[in-house]
Amino acid sequence: MAKQEYLNFLDFTKGLYEKALRFLEPGSDDFSILSGAVLLTVGLEKFVKYVLYTRHPFMVLYNKIDGFEDVIKLEQGETFANCNTISFEVALERLVKLYPELSTEAKDIKYIIEKRNYLMHNFGYIEIGNLEKRIQTKIADMSEAICDKCLQKHPQEIFTKEIWNEMAMIREAYKNAEVLEIEKRIKHLKRLYSKGQSLPCEKVEISNEIVTIEFTCPICEDAADIGIKWEFDIDVDHREGTILGAWEIPYPMLIKCGCGFTMNDPEEIEIVLGDKYKELIDYCIAQKQEEPDFYDD
Ligand SMILES: [Zn+2]
């Protein structure tokens, strides 16, 4: 069996995360943020490949594998360390195939990879604010999820206590700032509403496939619609490679109210719903069990 240490994927991750953190302290200038973003993204790419490679070296090889010859080489101790490896996108897809419970985190990482590619290969238009927020929160979320679901270890054990504590602290600071930002925005919208002015919210449409349920609008306190989308979640026994169960999970995707208030970022919606979020999810699931047709219109 090949020795995973040979490629040092994990050493890469640890080293790059450590360097990236120096650039990513809240309040850093744009180029520090961009430098940190690139380092952290490459670090995560190595981490995803580490998981695949540890599971089986063939999982990260770019070239088509010559089954018999390559199996013999592997048995003789070949590490394939000089071979090209797959792209980050493909590595991420493979990881989700092996660990479907990572699909939510992986979706956020896809956005980051897109921006990384854009940064490397295109001209300079980039929404740094949005990228910064996601880099600071989503890479920590994904790294933590990989440690937990794939490696069954605490992130401190993988990245060292210093690195992980700093990542977790920065993530916390950004999440808190996001909550404060939304609270501020809602106060502002309420003020406009009370003066009878129109609200500067994006126009959103609720398509026919989306089911809605009512929620008290944070602006006018009348009934607003929350659009719910159902997505599949699968539970897999990885050792046996069998699917233990599959079920649908409701995701609140957008809010639309007659007063003009809208929201279409699921994370922001989760923050706005606050304590009610779990209640709403449970309600949707219970409703669907009681009346399976209710949501299939
Ligand atoms: Zn309203």
Number of helices: 10
Query: How confident is the prediction overall: mean pLDDT?
Result: 85
Radius of gyration (Å)? 22 Å
Which ligands appear in the coordinates? zinc ion
Q: Which structural class should the secondary elements be placed in?
A: alpha+beta
Strand order of the largest sheet: 1-2-3-4
Write down the domain tally.
Answer: 2
Q: Could you give the order of the helices and strands?
A: HHHHHHHHEEEEHH
Helix content: 55-70%
Number of E-type strands = 4
Profile the largest sheet. 4 strands, antiparallel
Strand content: 5-15%
Which overall shape is indicated by the principal axes computed on the Cα atoms?
globular
Structural account:
The chain is an alpha+beta fold. The chain folds into two domains: about 5-180, no CATH class; about 200-295. Helix content is about 55%, strand content about 15%. A four-stranded antiparallel beta sheet has the order 1-2-3-4. The radius of gyration is 22 Å and the shape is globular. The site of zinc ion (ZN) has 8 residues, from loops.
